[in-house]
TrEMBL record:
VOC domain sequence ranges: 8-138
InterPro entries for this protein: Glyas_Bleomycin-R_OHBP_Dase, VOC_core
Pfam family membership, one: Glyoxalase_4
PROSITE patterns to which the protein is assigned, alphabetical: VOC
Protein name from the UniProt record: VOC domain-containing protein
Superkingdom field: Eukaryota
Organism: Turnera subulata
Gene3D superfamilies documented for this protein: 2,3-Dihydroxybiphenyl 1,2-Dioxygenase, domain 1
Length: 139
């Protein structure tokens, strides 16, 4: 039995130096709709396609001179606290607490926080290849 029961894709996140240009591209080419996004303290645009596919476009820090890819967050080190602003794939699970506990038991370094103004909890971590992952609560 998998650790993350009922896992579903939540969103895909991409950094860009011009999130407005990128948003317009996705809206024009694929038909994404722009939806309201929380104030995280940095510029972000949320897009939605259909009933369940979200794309989060996050403004890249001007001083970041890292290439696109797994290490494009604010630091080239594998520190999950940098993932909220970097590239990551997010899944939502209904068993958030037990999922996080399993990560800890396996020695996986994590960073946790909640979405401002919403009852959603998040945990960020890396896969064995260094790709950023987020798991969000679905309670």
């Amino acid at each position: 039995m998998p650790v993350a029961e009922g896992a579903v894709l939540n969103h895909v996140s991409r950094e860009s130096v011009d999130i407005r240009r990128l948003a317009e591209f996705y809206k024009e080419i694929f038909g994404f709709d722009e939806v309201e996004s929380p104030n995280f303290g940095f510029n972000v645009i949320w897009l939605k396609l259909g009933d369940s596919l979200f794309l989060h476009l996050i403004e890249r820090l001007p001083e970041t001179k890292l290439p696109e890819g797994p290490y494009s967050a604010t630091s080239p080190v594998l520190d999950p606290s940098h993932l909220p602003r970097g590239h990551h794939l997010c899944l939502s699970v209904s068993n958030f607490d037990s999922f996080v506990q399993t990560l800890k038991e396996r020695g996986i370094q994590t960073f946790q926080r909640s979405v401002p103004g919403r009852p959603i909890r998040q945990v960020f971590f890396f896969d064995p290849d260094g790709n950023g992952l987020e798991v969000a609560s679905r309670d």
